[in-house]
């Protein structure tokens, strides 16, 4: 048989509960008289506010004066209050607002979580948020939302500040190029490195390729700024850096709303500052180097598509990748037995760029023979109409058109030579030269495509 025992009701008086020990935290960000007066007002307000509640016991007032709220490590009174919380001297905290308590998002969330773990809650008077009367996830969401809005506002203010420094030429370059040191925000020539910069430009003007210049520097045991080896990419980047002429162009890149960085191709304003710092090379040397680099680039392109290369193998420069448009290259594969295959050049350079895999040469041979047989047997339908169309074209007009394009290209080259001469003699400002030279280069590319 079950035995039931009655537990007698406790008739003790529950009305007598221990008072909640409440502390207040105040802060002002400057030492001005007006701010200190505000602090004194806050202190009087919270002491009176806490003592007026019969269920609260005044546990002290903590205040930091003349200190910004960015980092908690710089606020001794806040840290003292947290220590008292850990020593169980405080049960509840009252403060004016989230921004007064902690402006830094990480610190705010860290402190709130730490105090919640200790069973101590905070009341933010301005936002009317009590961390003890709501779900923690909801509370953190609200705090994060407020912090995010503040972060966006700070970011916009920072962008505006940087833009103003761009406009008045006071922006300080934090990462100086090789050949310069940053001293008190100014670019100062590093003479030891400057000699290497001059060597690079002189080598380019003498006709050496970027690869050859890099090899020369490495053979001489001349280190890069980070102590590494020189590469052709580094040399080309330096040869195109206008800062070596004492000119600075700001906002070459920009970040979008998702914080992704992009090269500025005219989407945003750019700012050109003449005589920004001491030059290492002259404008004339820089302009001449650009012409040499451009000419070498064109020659390299022609070599890449030269007749000799195109005719090296029957399929050379004739197989185009259907995925990325790259040209196929001949390779020798070996999986137990060697065989010839063709693979996309972009896939060879970077497997992530193109997913097209290799194709055996005999598959191309089979496809080619099949297509040739189809053309032979269907030449009346396919080839004959095409031949008639070609014969109807006026070859004389085509020849005249090519001659006109050659003449325009020659005039374009002559105009660019004149520009360099004017620049060398100091008759043209660098911005004017760069603008005109870019326009002529674009026109030359357009004429080459038409030809």
CATH topology assignment of the largest domain: Rossmann fold
Instruction: Say how many strands there are.
Output: 14
CA-CA gap between termini: 110 Å
What is the CATH architecture annotation of the largest domain? 3-Layer(aba) Sandwich
What is the string of SSEs from the N terminus onward?
Answer: EHEHEHHEEHEEHHHEEEEHHEEHEHHHH
Top-tier CATH class of the largest domain: Alpha Beta
Number of helices: 15
Low-pLDDT runs of 5+ residues are none
**Principal-axis shape:** elongated
The largest β sheet comes out as: 5 strands, mixed
Structural class, by secondary structure, is alpha/beta
Within CATH, the superfamily of the largest domain carries the name Resolvase, N-terminal catalytic domain
| Strand arrangement across the biggest beta sheet | 2-1-3-4-5
| Beta fraction | 5-15%
Gyration radius from CA atoms, angstroms: 37 Å
What proportion of the residues is helical, as a percent range?
40-55%
How many structural domains in the coordinates?
4
Average pLDDT, to the nearest integer?
Answer: 79
């Amino acid at each position: 048989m079950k035995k039931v025992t009655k537990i007698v009701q406790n008739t003790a008086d529950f009305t007598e509960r221990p008072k909640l020990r409440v502390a207040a935290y105040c802060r002002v960000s400057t030492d001005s008289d007006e701010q200190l007066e505000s602090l004194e007002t806050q202190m009087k307000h919270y002491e009176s506010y806490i003592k007026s509640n019969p269920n609260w016991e005044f546990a002290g007032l903590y205040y930091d004066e003349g200190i910004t709220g960015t980092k908690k490590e710089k606020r001794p009174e806040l840290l003292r209050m947290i220590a008292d919380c850990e020593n169980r001297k405080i049960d509840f905290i009252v403060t004016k607002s989230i921004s007064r308590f902690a402006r830094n998002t990480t610190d705010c969330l860290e402190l709130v979580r730490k105090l919640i773990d200790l069973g101590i809650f905070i009341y933010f008077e301005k936002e009317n948020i009590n961390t003890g009367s709501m779900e923690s996830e909801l509370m953190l969401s609200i705090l994060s939302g407020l912090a995010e809005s503040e972060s966006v506002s700070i970011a916009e203010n920072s962008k505006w500040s940087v833009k103003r420094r761009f406009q008045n030429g006071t922006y300080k370059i934090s990462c100086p190029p090789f050949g310069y040191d940053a001293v008190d925000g100014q670019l100062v020539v590093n003479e030891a490195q400057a000699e290497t910069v001059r060597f690079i430009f002189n080598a380019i003007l003498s006709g050496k390729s970027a690869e050859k210049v890099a090899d020369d520097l490495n053979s001489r045991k001349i280190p890069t700024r980070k102590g590494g080896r020189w590469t052709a990419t580094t040399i080309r980047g330096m040869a195109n850096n206008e800062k070596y002429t004492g000119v600075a162009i700001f906002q070459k890149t920009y970040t979008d709303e998702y914080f992704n960085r992009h090269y500025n191709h005219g989407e945003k304003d750019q700012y050109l500052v003449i005589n920004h710092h001491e030059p290492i090379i002259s404008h004339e040397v820089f302009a001449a180097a650009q012409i040499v680099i451009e000419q070498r680039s064109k020659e390299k392109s022609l070599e890449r598509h030269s007749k000799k290369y195109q005719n090296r193998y029957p399929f050379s420069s004739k197989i185009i990748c259907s995925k990325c448009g790259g040209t196929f290259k001949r390779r020798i594969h070996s999986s137990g037995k060697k065989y010839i295959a063709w693979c996309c050049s972009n896939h060879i350079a970077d497997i992530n760029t193109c997913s097209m895999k290799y194709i055996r040469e005999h598959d191309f041979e089979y496809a080619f023979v099949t297509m040739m047989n189809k053309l032979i047997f269907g030449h009346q339908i396919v080839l004959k109409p095409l031949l008639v169309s070609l014969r109807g074209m006026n070859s004389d007009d085509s020849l005249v058109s090519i001659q006109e394009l050659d003449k325009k290209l020659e005039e374009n080259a002559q105009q660019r030579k004149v520009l360099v001469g004017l620049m060398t003699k100091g008759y043209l400002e660098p911005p004017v030269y760069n603008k005109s030279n870019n326009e002529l280069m674009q026109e030359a590319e357009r004429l080459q495509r038409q030809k």
